[in-house]
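Entry for the shared binder. Reason: the reviewer on the internal report wants the predicted structure included alongside the sequence.
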Amino acid sequence: MSNYPLFFFFFMGRILDLAKRDVKKISGNLNGWAVELVLTTPDDTKSIIIAGIHVKIGRGVGTDGNQINTKVAPIAFHEEYLTAQSYPVRNAAGEVALMKHKVAVKDSTGTVKNYVIDQCFPDEALGLLSCILGDLKI
């Protein structure tokens, strides 16, 4: 019997460990890609500041293939940054439950923009939470 399967799983496990480390480092580096994000619970009982990645995209492609004006504002951050500050991330079933949480982030001009989390896509393997933001209606 070959040791190939054992080596393969060790190698793949090591790659996953490196990916986890890199994702956490990149998404949390305020001297690199990351920016400060202020997350607040929907009932305003808890607010924290974390590092994460934010972009705002103003163009898209319509169903006919032509460019259209649209707005998409995704963010991404490591789950550990929230749990380290006792921020509620998961519900009683253990699922990520960040819908309707509020997010404030500065744009390139320094103006604070306020959003609400509309969708969240957790990467359970890496611990990265990618969320799509919508406009916060006050």
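Summary line for the report: The helical segments are 4-27, 79-83.
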